[in-house]
């Protein structure tokens, strides 16, 4: 999986095109039942859990498994770099937003079951992600950044009112 992602990233395309290429590279690996070890499938009852699986030595990308227990979600946020998400287990729901006149404006809702892949690049990557099922959900995230160095791919969170 890492070799396929590396090949896509090394093409040095635009951020948006890189996200498309990485999405295509990630998709075939999502059905593999043994892709994650048991410790990489473990959640936390208090918040969604991030397991760093790989950081490319040059910092050009990182692969992370996020484990979501029922009801867990992110805050509304954006990212420091392009991002690709593949749902490995369960179902995730994503609400995308734009900011207009100091308010969050919902722009698109996406529900992704296991096997679905999506990718995006800033700007225009403001969203909230949540577990949309009654069981654990696990997604693989590939970020165009060194997550070991940064700790997270989140650039900022948005605590703005919804447009009325």
Automatic annotation (TrEMBL):
Keyword set includes Metal-binding: yes
InterPro entries in alphabetical order: CDO_1, RmlC-like_jellyroll, RmlC_Cupin_sf
Has UniProt tagged this entry with the keyword Lipoprotein?
no
Keywords attached to this Swiss-Prot or TrEMBL record, sorted alphabetically, are: Dioxygenase, Iron, Metal-binding, Oxidoreductase
Sorted alphabetically, which Gene3D superfamilies does this protein's record hold? Jelly Rolls
Family to which the UniProt record says this protein belongs? Belongs to the cysteine dioxygenase family.
What PANTHER family does its record include?
CYSTEINE DIOXYGENASE, CYSTEINE DIOXYGENASE TYPE 1
Name recorded for this polypeptide: Cysteine dioxygenase
Native source species: Saccharopolyspora taberi
Print the organism lineage. Answer: Bacteria, Bacillati, Actinomycetota, Actinomycetes, Pseudonocardiales
